[in-house]
Design a protein that fits this description.
The chain is mainly α. Helices cover about 80% and strands about 0% of the residues.
């Protein structure tokens, strides 16, 4: 794989991880639906988290979809790193 393409893809994946973490932090605070940043975070993360929520419903009020999405993204990061190194 071209190192430049791998780097761009890794930055994209790490950015998604950051958005999921920010969303988890935002879930602990009162929601501000009119805030543009909050809407951006939800707009970016909803397509990732909704399919996982259908498979992994909340467990006793605890939404584990964020953890599952981060694990999936980490696996993708590891694959890109391995392909790029080899």
């Amino acid at each position: 794989m071209n190192p430049a393409i791998a780097t761009v893809f890794l930055v994209f994946l790490w950015t998604l991880v950051g958005f999921v973490i920010v969303r988890a932090i935002l879930s602990w605070a009162p929601n501000r639906p009119n805030n543009e940043f909050v809407r951006l975070v939800y707009r970016v993360t909803d397509p990732l988290m909704e399919p996982v929520r259908r498979i992994l419903p909340p467990l006793g009020g605890l939404d584990l979809s964020g953890i599952a999405v981060i694990v999936i993204l980490q696996v993708m990061i590891a694959v890109v790193n391995r392909v790029n190194a080899g």
